[in-house]
Amino acid sequence: MNYTEQLGINAKNAEPEIASASTMLKNKALSAISKALTENADLIIAENAKDLQKARENGMSVAMQDRLKLDEKRIKDMAKGVDEIIAFNDPVGHIIEGFTRPNSLRIAKTRVPLGVIGIIFESRPNVTVDASALCLKSGNAVILKGGKEAINSNKCLGEIMRKAVESVGLPADIIQVVDSTSRETTNELMRLNKYLDVLIPRGSARLIQAVVNTATVPVIETGTGNCHVYVDDSADLEMAVDIVDNGKTQRPSVCNAIESLLVHKDCAEEFLPMIAERFKAHDVKIYGCDRTIEILGETVEKATEEEYAKEFQDYIIAVKVVESVDEAITHIRKFGTKHSECIVTKSLENAEKFQKKVDASAVYVNASTRFTDGGEFGYGAEIGISTQKLHARGPMGLNELTTIKYLINGNGQIR
Amino acid sequence: MNYTEQLGINAKNAEPEIASASTMLKNKALSAISKALTENADLIIAENAKDLQKARENGMSVAMQDRLKLDEKRIKDMAKGVDEIIAFNDPVGHIIEGFTRPNSLRIAKTRVPLGVIGIIFESRPNVTVDASALCLKSGNAVILKGGKEAINSNKCLGEIMRKAVESVGLPADIIQVVDSTSRETTNELMRLNKYLDVLIPRGSARLIQAVVNTATVPVIETGTGNCHVYVDDSADLEMAVDIVDNGKTQRPSVCNAIESLLVHKDCAEEFLPMIAERFKAHDVKIYGCDRTIEILGETVEKATEEEYAKEFQDYIIAVKVVESVDEAITHIRKFGTKHSECIVTKSLENAEKFQKKVDASAVYVNASTRFTDGGEFGYGAEIGISTQKLHARGPMGLNELTTIKYLINGNGQIR
Fold first, then answer.
1. Using one digit for the tens of pLDDT, what is the confidence trace for B183-205?
2. Class of B3-222+383-409 per CATH?
3. Among candidates A219, A174, A134, which has minimal Cα distance to A399?
4. Cα separation of A384 and A391, whole Å?
5. How confident is the model at residue B276 (pLDDT cuts 50, 70, 90)?
6. What is the rounded average pLDDT of the residues A381-390?
7. Which of A368, A411, B97, B372 counts the highest number of beta carbons within 10 A?
8. Residue B396 neighbours by CB under 8 Å, 6+ apart
């Protein structure tokens, strides 16, 4: 038996205990985790320092080093995140619907945990804690495979959480951090159908594509967002400037940030200079179509299909002037990743058409795409934004970490 | 561009029209399909005869020939099945929940079609019609790949339906029957991520396993059912005989039929002869553990792990005498396929334990597993019984052929 299979067996053995644990016990475990993180801050920072040391040696960019770094403040934030999950409703045992059939058979459609969840992620070590806490609260065992650049931090966080859950009487194996940086282990994890019920990749488009191509375990894709704002000819242009600027510059590295701007030809001449002016504050680089270059001048580089397809996650945007709302919809249909799309308009007809015809998890009229977020929707912490159509779409919270079990009670009914 | 990709493009082009079609128009299309099937019965029977001719030449079993055969009565039943779907509620556009956030952002969580659905199935040509009708009503385009033994029947049914939907003004390409029997086409279909939103295999465990191993398109597994009845020591034994007999013999070829019987040691001596006596009416072959052979005698063949793992789909059953409800649960955990499981008991404690600890889509107390069925649940026609945990579990009706779209309306909100 290899190492990956052993992880699977450990998780499956621990699963029944966490699946049937009471909400009170699970909350006690979360509380113990939160406390242990705070108490072990020095240890975490020391282990994290090893990763940072290696990162510097390997010439990692300063921005990436910053994502990797854990300090007192960030550890406190992680602990606070865990505490917040204590207050969430436990989805397990919820009766979604229930009814009695004509033959007196009583049927209850209930929520149960998914079972064992695999999470494959990159760089940021806080995912180890966030994801574990959400899986624990929803009654699932979890196997976490983080990036090799954070291996010491992740292992340390894992050990602290395992001791914490054990201290309240739950099996440590409900949380396992993969102690391997080999690609082989990742590949084995993706095909561990016997023990894994679902696999959630979190990270770059490249990572997610690799998982989709290799995995036989059911996958929930998260997070690639090539999001657009379309500024209609009837738009309130001041509002459009705010929405486009917010979508692009408020936090460009996240998946609900916008990457492309589509502008109706009849307002392009007025609008493009307005947004270009606003973009100066963040020195946003613009790629554009010929008409955009005509209006904004030679500082704009010519956009090709490559730029329209790209998730920059940076202060960069691709701009296109379009003939109509229909051309905008067609463009989004071609280049969008079905995450979040927005129209700025005063036209009821165009608003309705855009919301009906654009195929995405969230379609906005006159508001920033940055709101596609579990917290902003009022659902609380999330494990990711699903961009696929099966099981979950949009922000995935605790409900999305459960499945259905029909409980059927009779007194001898047969067909 | 190859043939499979062309099918994908056709479907994606037709998708927006069916996705935004009104319920009235979709019902009109269903009505036209139903009428066309009845009117073209002679043509269908003639094409089906070609398949039957070939089947006889290839030495197909009589039972399989019967599954393949279409006659007046079966065509009328197919048409009636389509008519019934007209009466179902259209899930598209349903608002699952809606709320206004503190910043006045209005969020509506709505149901939209999945998009393009691929269905890979075996032998029975009625699936071509059932599945098309369900996909149409739920606003999806469908690509159907049936078994090679039914190719003439499937193509004929496909053509009739395509003409019918065209006659009401919908694009024919919302229904496409794959005109190829090659394995290569099937493999291409399974990796057609660019055009297919979901793949639903219907058929044998072998087919479903092949799809799970090969597909990169998200899959919904359906239908493998290694279902058990556990007869507790406290059971009403007459009731247990009825439930076991019904589960095994009422329709042994379907996925919710039972394949194994577990009996508590304290009632085995009384119960096993009772059920063996009842099984005589259908000449049910019994494989059993040593204790079963002790009680029932040498007519029982020794059961190995192979029999406990097997979905016989026939008048064959594997029997095991167990020490306790816990041993029964452990056995089901090892051999079950998470479809439908049943306990017959008078003990509240054991009933609750069984429903809590057994991991399956439907867990019964004192009723036949044969009720795991869209119609029996009151949900209407189904596209299959999902045995996986993602997206859908148990009978899959129209709701399960949809996904989520969040519609968000604001007046300039930014973060």
1. 899 999 999 999 999 999 988 88
2. alpha beta
3. A134
4. 13
5. very high
6. 90
7. A368
8. B220, B222, B374, B382, B383, B384, B385, B386
Nearest CA among B119, B108, B404, B144 for reference residue A390: B404
Examine the pLDDT at B291 and tell me if it is beyond 80. Answer: yes
Which pLDDT score is estimated for B301? 97
Question: Which residues partner with B175 through β-bridges?
Answer: B142
Nearest to B137, CA basis, from B382, B413, B378: B382
Q: Do the Cβ atoms of A390 and B388 come within 8 Å?
A: no
Q: Phi and psi (nearest 5°) for A120?
A: -115, 120
**Residue written as token pair 């919809």:** A329
- C-alpha B206/C-alpha B202 separation (Å) is 10
- From A351, A392, A415, residue closest to B250, measured CB to CB: A415
Helical residues (DSSP H) of B138-182, grouped into ranges: 151-167
Its CATH architecture, for the domain A227-376, is 3-Layer(aba) Sandwich (3.40)
- Which chain B positions have a beta carbon within 8 Å of A245's beta carbon? 414
What is the least distance, in Å, from the CA of B41 to any CA of chain A? 31
Cβ–Cβ under 8 Å, residues B386 and B224: no
Min mean pLDDT across A63-67, A227-231, B244-248 is at A63-67
Beta-bridge partner residues of B302: B288
Residue A13, CA distances (Å) to A115, B90, B287, B359 in order: 11, 42, 30, 13
- The answer to whether the beta carbons of residues B128 and B120 sit under 8 Å apart is no
**Best residue in A227, A364, A415 to probe B by mutation, most B CBs within 10 Å?**
A415
Neighbours of A361 (CB within 10 A): 25
Kindly tell me the burial class for residue B298, based on how many C-beta atoms sit within 10 Å of its own C-beta (0-12, 13-18, 19 or more).
exposed
Beta-carbon-side half-sphere exposure of residue B154 (alpha carbons within 13 Å): 28
For residue A246, give the amino acid letter. Answer: N
Residue B102 backbone phi and psi in degrees, to 5: -55, -30
The residue extents of the domains of chain B are 3-222+383-409, 227-376
Tell me whether domains B3-222+383-409 and B227-376 share a fold. Answer: no
β-sheet bridge partners, residue B258:
B227
A128's enclosing H/E stretch is helix A126-137
How do beta strands B227-231 and B340-344 pair? Answer: parallel
Among B81, B384, B77, residue whose Cα is nearest residue B221? B384
CB contact at 8 A, B378 and A100: no
SS3 B30: helix
B400 CB-near residues (< 8 Å, 6+ apart):
B220, B383, B386, B391, B392
Compute how many other C-beta atoms are within 10 angstroms of the C-beta atom of residue B235: 24
pTM of this structure: 0.92
Alpha carbons B382 and B363: distance in angstroms, whole number? 19
* Identity of the residue in A107, A370, A393 whose CB atom sits nearest the CB atom of B403: A393
Nearest to A414 among B198, B246, B414 (CB): B246
Closest CA to A153 of A126, A117, A187, A188: A126
- Please tell me the distance from the alpha carbon of residue A132 to that of residue A145, in angstroms, as a whole number: 12
Contact in structure between B331 and B227 (CB atoms under 8 Å): no
CA closest to A329 among chain B residues: B16
Coil, strand or helix at A230:
strand
Gap from B354 CA to chain A (nearest CA, Å): 10
Half-sphere exposure of A259 (CA within 13 A, CB side): 25
Question: What secondary structure letter does DSSP report for A370?
Answer: G
Q: Report CB contact under 8 Å: B414, A368.
A: yes
**Rounded Cα–Cα distance for residues A207 and A412 (Å):** 51
Chain B residues with beta carbon closer than 8 angstroms to that of A208: none
Reported ipTM: the value is 0.93
Q: Specify the amino acid at residue A63.
A: A
Q: CA angle, A202 as apex, A124 and A200 as ends, to 5°?
A: 135
Token digits for B364? 């019964």
